[in-house]
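[09:14] KT: can someone run the structure on this one? pasting the chain below
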Amino acid sequence: MNDLAPKEWIRFQKSWFVHDPPPRRKDVKLHPAKFPETLAQEFIEFFTKADQTVLDPMVGTGSTLIACLRSGRHGIGIELSPKYAELATRLVEEEQVSTAPEPPRATVIQGDAADLLSFDLPPIDYVFTSPPYWNMLHARGAGTQKQRREDADLDVTYSDEPAD
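[09:31] RB: done, structure tokens below
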């Protein structure tokens, strides 16, 4: 399943954990539901081995792909929104420059995950995603967080795409 040492394996077996990620850059905070690369990396390293391929069918700003690069896995991400696909591509390119001379591959495909079978993808070893379909910033009681994001000029919706 993975190449973790027994001590690392046991640490991941806890029934709950607190994740304390580093601060995020403003350009990635633009996305209303970004999750930390460090969180994705923990799961990717637990469920895959180096050089395996991970798919994120709703890649957003590319957290999963960056986690793949940092853990020596290949990553493929599909993103419906051209805006976020472009941002994910830029962030992946920046990360690839900072990794080993022969880094794993990470690819962003701008498209609809509903068309997954039409993409010519290699075999996938693991899928990791955070589906963007909980509209929490428009739910009752979310007004404070929504207002905070609006005041900071951050997005409060994923996109206006009918397929979203």
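[09:33] KT: thanks! The longest helix spans residues 82-98.
[09:34] RB: yep, looked fine to me
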